[in-house]
Structure to design on (62 residues):
């Protein structure tokens, strides 16, 4: 119900951010490594949130 009330799946976003932080902490994602995040449906929502929260680059479409 978070998406309906807040517009974001806050619990899943928090879990995703924690998982990403653990991968970095364990050295599974090297410092400075570029990664791509994609998804469909909820996964797309999480990929968008990931890019918004963790510094995804924005590209002009014109």
């Amino acid at each position: 119900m978070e998406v309906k009330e807040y517009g974001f799946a806050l619990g899943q976003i928090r879990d995703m951010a924690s998982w990403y932080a653990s991968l970095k902490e364990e050295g599974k994602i090297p410092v400075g490594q570029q990664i791509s995040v994609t998804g469909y449906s909820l996964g797309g929502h999480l990929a968008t949130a990931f890019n918004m929260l963790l510094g995804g680059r924005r590209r002009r479409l014109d």
